[in-house]
């Protein structure tokens, strides 16, 4: 059984469930949504549409299990899987198992979790099947006010019909209904607008939670605190001091098995237009009026509005080719994937430069770089400061760089110059280093999806994408995406497992980012204690 212990993470002042969780532990759980009050034992239904799919097995079921296990969900909850397949909860459980990370002592809670799970097979376009789902939810709610949360773990082709069916057949009668939508949110400005118009015709913006899971990552959420909770960064956070900002995402594997999906979208839509641009907004936005979700999202939109559409001369595109010497075995190129058309020009690597035309950032390049089948897994932000002016030292000081490493291994380090320790008066490059697994070795950092799904229960939209953010993001990338497609711009080849096309480094250099190759990180520094 669940204990009364209350863990509260990631709460903002408005997050009703966090208050609720506290009240729940006091047995006086009250949620105010649309002016309605609830008792903590009110029923909650979490419905996973697309329950038989990859996303559901790999991410959504594991996430709700971890939240359940950690007592972060309302105590009166059931989970409904819905998909076309004639599958069962047992089968879903079997498919999810390797992603659930169940510890030995958690067997009892794990069994309880699956007892709360149900499955309904139904078609996405069948009103009758959604009515059936609704009846089951009603039976569970038993006339008591219930809250419903629908997770669209589905291909975008069925978003429209599924949301119509939810609207017409499955809304909570007196409680709240929230819809979590996964990317892709359209393929370009027009298709995204069409989807937004459709969703807005059915739901209010407060009912819609557009997930960008990078907004749930520790170091991405940390950007605001770092910038606005410290005195030292803000005064230098501008065009007078910063030379260039590089935001990158690298994956060491190709599209293996997902070529069919990926080829329709490409790396710009898959990573740059959403994850990297979201990070950019948090790096560049002005201080919001408060930590209220809409104050933050207003600032993000303002930054986006200052960015002109990405131009062809400001982008390097790449597509990986096979590497016969791949680690241990040959690595196939993108076009060798059977699910990819042989003449595909879809980029698997892209590096683009954006400019923010405002008083703070005028002239500072923001370089977004992302790619698959590269040499390592890495996501990070590098804020590179300008050269020291009026230098007095022999041997020019290297530029300061603030590195915010999102993954793997969350860390924050500032590269800086010191006097070489000892008798000499030479300079040496070193770092101020905040490595999370050393400094916070006793803290378990939750997975991005855990934070975000909990936020949905909380009613906190701080880390979700608002419709106007989305349309600004598409405005910036749609012209280049169309140009690549209509003019069939060929990406540059790069070898699987390499750093990507060398032209990307040239573009970076031309955008005032200096890589010297002189910085040396000594990983195992011995403690003198
Ligand atoms: N707290 C910690 O754990 C810390 C760890 N370190 C580690 O030390 C190592 C080095 O630190 P780091 O800050 O990366 O130092 P560097 O200045 O050496 O930067 C290295 C990165 O620069 C990029 N690069 C390589 N060649 C070029 C080029 N010609 N032009 C432009 N960019 C280039 C590469 O990234 P890409 O391929 O993405 O372009 C490379 O990873 C890293 O592994 C880092 O994680 C450092 C400090 C603290
Ligand atoms: O959204 C996506 O993200 C993943 C990478 O996510 P991460 O949390 O593992 O960094 C990427 O593999 C996928 O192509 C993309 O759609």
From TrEMBL:
Listed EC numbers: 1.1.1.49
Gene3D superfamilies assigned: Dihydrodipicolinate Reductase, domain 2 (3.30.360.10), NAD(P)-binding Rossmann-like Domain (3.40.50.720)
GO MF annotations, alphabetized: glucose-6-phosphate dehydrogenase activity; NADP binding
Domain Glucose-6-phosphate dehydrogenase C-terminal as annotated: residue spans: 224-515
Domain Glucose-6-phosphate dehydrogenase NAD-binding intervals: 47-222
Gene Ontology, cellular component aspect: cytosol
Reaction equation(s) it catalyzes: D-glucose 6-phosphate + NADP(+) = 6-phospho-D-glucono-1,5-lactone + NADPH + H(+)
UniProt keyword annotation of Cytoplasm present: yes
Pathway assigned in UniProt: Carbohydrate degradation; pentose phosphate pathway; D-ribulose 5-phosphate from D-glucose 6-phosphate (oxidative stage): step 1/3
BP GO terms, sorted: glucose metabolic process; pentose-phosphate shunt, oxidative branch
Cell compartments where the protein resides: Cytoplasm, Cytosol
SUPFAM superfamilies with a match to the protein in the record: Glyceraldehyde-3-phosphate dehydrogenase-like, C-terminal domain (SSF55347), NAD(P)-binding Rossmann-fold domains (SSF51735)
Alphabetical keyword list: Carbohydrate metabolism, Cytoplasm, Glucose metabolism, NADP, Oxidoreductase
Pfam families per record: G6PD_C, G6PD_N
Enzyme class (EC, first level): oxidoreductase
Family membership: Belongs to the glucose-6-phosphate dehydrogenase family.
PANTHER family attached to this UniProt entry: GLUCOSE-6-PHOSPHATE 1-DEHYDROGENASE, GLUCOSE-6-PHOSPHATE 1-DEHYDROGENASE G6PD
Protein role: Cytosolic glucose-6-phosphate dehydrogenase that catalyzes the first and rate-limiting step of the oxidative branch within the pentose phosphate pathway/shunt, an alternative route to glycolysis for the dissimilation of carbohydrates and a major source of reducing power and metabolic intermediates for fatty acid and nucleic acid biosynthetic processes.
NCBIfam families membership: zwf (TIGR00871)
Protein known as: Glucose-6-phosphate 1-dehydrogenase
Species of the source: Aquatica leii
